Amino acid sequence: MAALELDVPQWRVDSDGNRLPPDLLEFDLDPGPATSIVHCCRVAEYLREPLVADDLKPFAKTSGAKGMQLYAAIDIGDPAAPSAYAKRLAQ
Question: How many domains does the chain have?
Answer without folding.
Answer: 1
